Structures
1.
Amino acid sequence: MSAEGPSPAFRPAAAAALKNPQLRANFRRAMDGLMAKRAAVFADPVEWRDLRALGSAIRARTLARLPELLERLEQSCLRHGIRVRWAETTEEANAIVLEILKAHGATHVVKGKSMVSEEMHLNDFLEEHGIESLESDLGEYIIQLDGETPSHIIMPAIHKNRQQIARLFGQKIREARYTEDVDELTAIARRVLRKKFFEAEAGISGVNFAVAETGTLCLVENEGNGRMSTHVPPVHIALMGIEKVVEKLEDVPPLYSLLTRSATGQTITTYFNMITGPRGQGEKDGPTEVHLVILDNGRSRIFADTELSATLKCIRCGACMNHCPVYTRIGGHAYEAVYPGPIGKILTPQTEGVGRRHDLLEASSLCGACVEVCPVEIPIVELLVRLRREAVQGDRSSAVLQAGQGRHVLEDVTWSLWEATHRYPSLYRLMAFAATRLRRLLPSGLPVLSAWTSVRATPRPASRTLHELVRKAGVPDA
Amino acid sequence: MLETAREKILARLRGAGARLAAPDSDFGVMARKTWPAVGRYPRLRRMMEAVKAEFVEATEASWPQAVYEVVRSQGFSTLLYGPGTPAGQLLSDSWPAAEGPRLVPYNRPIEETKRQLFDEIDAGFTTTRGGIAETGGLIVWPSPEEPRLLSLVPPVHLALLYTDTISDTFWQAMRSEGWSAGLPPNALLISGPSKTADIEQTLAYGVHGPKRLIVVAVRRGANT
Amino acid sequence: MMQRHHRASYDSEMSPPEPQRPAKPATVYYYGTCLVDLFFPEAGLSGIRLLQREGIRVIFRQGQTCCGQPAFNSGYHDQARAVARAQIDLFPGSEPIVVPSGSCAAMMKRHYPALFEGDPRAEEAEAFAARVFELTQFLSNVLDIQLADRGEKVRVTWHPSCHALREMEIGDEPKRLLAQLANVELVPLSRERECCGFGGTFAVRHPEISAAMVEDKAGDVLSTGAPIVLSGDGGCLLNIGGRLAAMGRPVGARHVAEFLWERTRER
C-alpha cells in the first residue's frame, strides 16, 4: 500500500524544525533524560547482553513460526471467547471496527494508546462516521486536543512543554482553570477522562504482546487508562499488527522487561494487564465482548525477505529514537510518517515505497547509536544500507516496494565516475594529481559543495598525496 | 469461495519461501535472578515505595483491624470489597457495626452499580495472589468474587499481601504457578499508584487509576 | 551466514579486545584510505612511521585507492564491489592490513563479507576482512607500544568516530595511547559518543541536519578549552575541523596518528 497524496516534504520539515529553538530545547532535554534513565537500569553490561540476546532470539523465533503462531493465537483466543478478525489493509481494519461499533450502536469510544490505530488514522475515520473516539492516554489526549499526531511512539506529547500544555487546556477544556502546575494539569485530565470512561460504549486498545499459547493479550501502561478502556465499557476492541504475536507465556517477561527499561527506564510499569477473554462466568465487570483485529498493512511483504524481516522484530520501545542524533534535533513530526526515528526510517519506506520515501533512507549518518540500544538487535544500519541499495539498484524482481524508483540519473553518473576513478589506479592518480595541484581552485559555490561550505570552511586537499609522500619516503610497494 | 483476508495473509506468510530457523532461547538471565526468601519482602517494599506505594504491616490476626484503621484514619467513608472470599468474610466479620466508614460489598453486576462505583466509593479492597521481588509489584487475579474494577475505579486501592507469597521474578512466578495451564479472563500486575510523565517528563501521580496504593503486608506466623 | 542478518550488537562499552591477538608480525600492509590520501597525507605517513619504529616492515601498495564505503553506503553496491575487488587484489598473503581510519577499517572488516555474499570471491573477501585492523587498535592491542612524550604541555579532547566506536568496537585504545603522554591532558567531550554529522553523503543530502550536528559537536569541543580535537577518522576531521575553521577559532582538528608521532619522535 503506497501512500496517496503529495510527496512528503521531509527536508523542509526538518529544516523548519531545526530553526525552532523551543522544539530543539524540548527534545534535547527529553532525550537526554530518557537516555540517562535507560542507562541507569541497564547498568550491568552482562545482563544487558544476555537479556537482549534472549529478546532477540524470542522475536526471531516468532518470525520463524509466524503463520503457525498466528493461527494458534486465533484458536486460543476463540477458545476463551475473544473474537478474531483479520485485515489486510487499514481500510479493512477501519471497516471492521466500524462494523463492531455500529452493531452496538456505539457513538462514544475511549482509546488507549495504539500505534496501529495511528496507521489506520482511526480517530479521523470514526469522526467521519459520527463516532467520538477520545484518546485517554494523557500524552495522546493532549495532542488530540491540539489536532496533532504523536511525535514519539512512547511519549506522544514530548514536543510540548508545560506552558504549551497549560495554554491548550485553558483554551480547550471548559471547566479548566489556567494552571502550569503538572499535578493540577493531570488532575484536570483525570476529571475529564473519568467522565468519558464512565459514559463510553466501547474501548479500543493496542496490544503489546499477544500470546499464542494461551490467547492472552498483554497491555503495558502506567496511567490506568488502558485498564479503564478495556474493563469498563461493555465492548473492547484490540488492534495488533501481525508481528506482535509471541509463542509462549514465558516469552513475555523478558520482552516486557526489555520494553519498559528501554522505553522509559522503568523496571516495571504501574500496570501489566493480561486479557484472556471477555467477562467470565460469574464475573461482575469486564467487557461482555472482546474483539481482536489482526492487521497486515504491508508487514507480510516485509516478512518475505529474510534480511528485511528483522524490521518486524521491533517491540516499539522507542529507544532508537531516544538515542538518534537526527531525531533529537528535528523531533517526530518532521518525518511525516506514523513511525518516526530509526525504526520509522526502515519501516516506512518498506510500507510506502523506497522511491516515495527515499528521503527518509538518506536522513541518517549511519552512526549506529540506535543499533547499540535496540533491545532485540535489529541491525537498523545494515537494513538502511540494504534499502538504499534497493532504492537505486533494485529492480522489479525485488520484493521491496518501489525498488529502483529512488534512482536519479545524476547520481548514477556520479557513482559510475567514482567507480572508474577508483577502480583503475592510473585514473585515480590522475584525479588525485588534479585535486592536489589545483586544490586552491575548488569553487566553494558548486551546488554539492555549497551545502558543505555554508557552515564549514572549504575543504582543501593537501599539496601532495600520501601515495607521493610514501614513495618519496622509500616505503616499499611489495 | 472468496478468499478472506485471513487466508490471503496466511498464504502470503507461508509462501514467503525460505525462512530463518528459530534460534535457541537461553533463559539463564531470567533464571539466575533470585533472592534469599527473607530478602524478598524488603526488596519488594523498597521498589514499590520508590513509586509511592504505601505499606502497613500486620499479622494474620490483626490485618482486618489494620485495614479498618487505615480507612478510618484516612477519612475514607466507604470501602468496597468482595464479600465472597475468605478474606472478605474476615473483613466483614470484624468490621465495627457502629458509625464510621461503611463496608460496601461489590456483589452485583457493574451495570447496576456503575454510578455508585464511580462516585461514592472512596477505596477498594482486594486480596492478592502474590508479589514480585525483583521489580516490586503485586499479582492480582480479579475473579467473580473480587471484580476487576475494585482495584481500578476507587481513588484508593488497599491490597492484602502475604509476604510469603512473593516470588523472585515475574518469570519465575508464572512458571512455578503454572499460569500457562490456565489464566483467568483478566490477570494483573500492579506496582504502585497510577502515574504519568507525559508532561515535560515530570512524574505526576493519580492519573486515571487509583491515586494511592496501600499495601497491607502480612507476615504469617509472626506474633503481636 | 544468513543468520547474521538478524542480529547486530555493538558491545564497545563492555567487551575486551578481540580474542584473536596475533603475535607481533614482521610485516604489515598499510591501507591509507582516500580521505587520508588527499587531505591528511602527513597523518598517513605518521601512522607508517609509528609502525616502522616498532621494527615492523610496512608495505604500501601504490595501486590502492578507496575501500568503497561511499558507494556502499549510498546503495551503489555493484560499483562498491568492483572497487573493493581491485583493493583485495592488491593484498595477497596473510599479513595484517592496518588502516588509519575506523570507518574504512569497518567497511573492509565488517561489510566486505556481506558485499561479496554469493560472489565467486566471497571466501577471499572473508579472508581479507579477517586481516584488517584499525591503526590505534593495532598499536595498542597487538603491538602494545610504549610512548614517551617529548612535547610541551597541551590540553586535547577526543572524538571517537561512530564507525570506530560501534563497528570496530574500539573502546579506549586511543585514550590509552594518549594517556601514556605525560604532558597531554585529555579533557572529555560532554557528548563524546554523539555523531559529528559527517555520515559521508549525509552531509550533502541533508545539510541542515548535518550542520546542526557539527555545530553542536564544535561547540562541545570549544567548551573543553582544548586547542586540539583529535580523531582517528578523516571524515570526522574534515567535518569538525571545517566547522571550527569557519568559526574562526584557534582550535584545530588533527589525526591521532599525526599527533602521536609528532609528540614522540626524536627531534
2.
Amino acid sequence: MRFIRIVWAIVVKDVAAEFHTREMISAMLVFSVLALLIFSFALDLRGAVAQAAAPGVLWATVAFAGTLGLSRSLTREQQTGCIDGLLLAPVDRSAIFLGKALGNLAFMAVVEAVLLPLSSALFDVPLLRPGVLLVTALGTVGYAAVGTLLATIAVNTRAREVMLPILLLPLAIPSLIAAVQATGGLVEGGTLAEVGGWMRLLVVYDLVIVAVSVLTFGYLVEE
Amino acid sequence: MIQVHDLTKSFGPHMALAGVDLSVETGEFVALVGPNGAGKTTLLRILATLIRPTSGSVRIAGLDPVKEGEGVRRRIGFLSHRTLLYEDLTAEQNLWFYAKMYDLADSSARVADLLERVGLTSRRHDLVGTFSRGMQQRLAVARAVLHRAQLLLLDEPYTGLDPLATQALTNLLTELAEEGCTILLTTHDLNRDLKVGRRVVVLARGRVVHDVPRAEVDLAAFPEQYMQLVR
C-alpha cells in the first residue's frame, strides 16, 4: 500500500509541476499538431493513401512528441538535484521509476487525446475506435516505460538532448512497428482477432520492458 | 552515529577516497574541511547512500548503507549547494511531496511548523523558482529535516549565500545541533565555517589528515597549518 502511495505521490508531483508551467505539455502539443499539419499538406493524404499512411504518421508523431516530453521530465529532476531528493527517500527505487513512468504516460495520453481526433479529421480515417484506443494504450505504455528508463541514462550524459532519441528509437522499434501494423489493420476494417499477432507483440513488449525497467532502474541511478 | 573504517572509492583510475577513518558521535557537529577534490562530497554521498564505496566499512546508526539503505535514508537528511527542490512547485507543495515520500503521519502540522521556523509561511503558496537563493536554501533545510533526521549531511550548504542568508542558515543549524541533531558539514571556507562546528576534520588526498576539537583550533594560525596539511 505504501508502495502505491509513493508511486501516486510522484505522479501527482509531476502533474502539479506541469500544471504550474505547462512547458512540457504545450511543447508536446504544439509539436504534434504542427507535425500532423505538415504531413497532411506535404503528402496530400486522402482516400486509400490516407488509410495506409495515417497509422505511420500518427505513431511517428506520438514517438517524437513523447521523446520531447520524456527528455523534459527527467531534465526537471536533474536541474536542481531533485533526482537525489527522490533517491534519498526511504523507498524502493522501483517505486520512483513507476511514478516517473506513469507521469510520462499521463502526459503522452493527453497529447494522444488531441492527436487521435485531429488525425481522424485531417486524414478522414476512423481512429476513434475502441480497438485503436487499445492499441494506442498498449503502444504508449511500452514507449513511456522504455523512454523513462533511457531518459534517466541520457540525462546524465553531456549530449542529453540528442542522446535520448538515439537510445530510445532503436529499442522502441518493435513496439512502434507492432502499433503501426495493428492500427493499420483496424483502420482498414479489421477486427482485434485479425491483428491479434501484433497485439500480442505489444503486450509481450510492454511486460518485458516494464519488468526490465523496474529491475534495473535502481542500478542505473546509482553512480 | 557514523563509523567509517578504511573507506575507499575509485572512479576509474582516480581514487577519490584512499582509506578514510572517521567516527562521529551522536549530537556532534563536525566541520569537514578540505580543498577541492579532497573527497568531501564523495564521502558525504557514500554516507547518504547515493554512491557505493569501493571497499572499507561504513555504519550509520549501526546500519550498513549498502545493505540497509532504506533504514539509513530514514535517519539522514542531506543538504548541498543544490537545493533538491522543485522550482515548478510551491514551497508548501515541495514539503508536502517530501512528507509523502517519507510517509510522515503528521504531514500538515510538520510542514506548517517548518515553514514557520524557516520564515517562509507567508510565501508558502509561491513557486520556489521565484525565491532568492537564501530563501531556497532555508526551505532546503526544512526539506532535509522534515522527517526528523537524526543525522544531517551538509555538502557546502553556504555556497552562493549572501551574509544575511549565511547568518540565517548558521542560526538554523545551531538550533538543530542544540536539539541533538548530529551534523557533518563539508566546507573549504576556513574563515566562516570553522566557527559553526565543534570539531574540525581535515580531508586531503582522500584521507583524514587532521582531526581536532574546535576549541583547540587557533583560528588565526589555522589557515597556515591547513595549507601545510593539504599540500
